[in-house]
Design a protein that fits this description.
Blueprint lengths: L1 H7 L3 H23 L73 E5 L3 E4 L9 E4 L9 E6 L3 E6 L14 E6 L3 E5 L3 E5 L4 E6 L2 E6 L3 E3 L8 E9 L12 E7 L13 E6 L5 E4 L3 E3 L1 H8 L6 E5 L1
Parallel strand pairs: 8-17, 11-15, 14-16
Antiparallel strand pairs: 1-4, 1-7, 2-3, 4-5, 5-6, 8-9, 9-10, 12-13, 12-17, 13-14
Length: 307
Amino acid sequence: MRASQSHATTSPRAWIAVVVGVVVVVAGFTGAWLLRPDAAAEPAAVPTPTVVTPSATPTPEATPPPAPVGFAANTAAYELASLPQVDVFAVLPQLPVDTDPASAPTGEVVTAAGSGAPVFADPTADPVAVLPAEYVYGGTTVPVVERQEHWVRVLLTGRQATPSTGDPGQLTGWLRAQDVVFAAVDARVEVSLSARTIDIVRPDGSERIATDFGSGVEGTPTPTGRSFIMTTRVEPSFGYTRGYPLVYLSVQSPTLDGFGGADVAITAFHYHDARSGAISNGCIRLDPAAIEKLAELPMGTPVQILP
């Protein structure tokens, strides 16, 4: 009994001492943790993202179409019967001579969609001539040298003037895209007067068909620049051709107003027994194999004659 009473009646001072000791130990441990140099603060809570669902898919703004390139469209109707015809015999001072003879055409040819297409010297003015859909001496399939949305610039037959009165160089003109039918042409002919070579050039390569030929003398030179095959025909009355085709070009002599009694002086590829060096009135004289190759090419095929 004494022992139990003694334990139950522990002195208040002893309890106070125990409590104070515990508090001191805890405080010291906490202070030591906060003073550690590598102690890290407790990370903040990561907020839960809020997903916003749009009520509807936004509609992108429409991209405006590109502005028309080149001259504006012209849908006017014209009386074609009152206009002079573009053909090999025509002298048309209203039409310009080609000012960019070294550039390659676009690879397209056109023909008139109806009986004829109006020809413009200036797309902002009235037409000055008509390109027929058919003509006995050809020249109605013409190469495009510039294409716009509503217009094409083409090479043409005929002359602005005869050599004795002006510039007889290769003619050009503008046609409305609405008036023509387009077709592709995959070949062009390249002639080098200095190298004495002729090549037929296609996208997949070129074929050399001549390493020599006859060409114009100084007084009647072969015209240089770009032109096109106007027509191909056999003319039995021209004995020097030996029955081989003549491949006529759109460009004419730079020095002759006419030739052989005609009012024209057309340049052509043709056969001749004498066919080497400066020897002709401007035509290019070739052997049978080369003539046959050129005669296979379609009307309107571009021809580039380099000096």
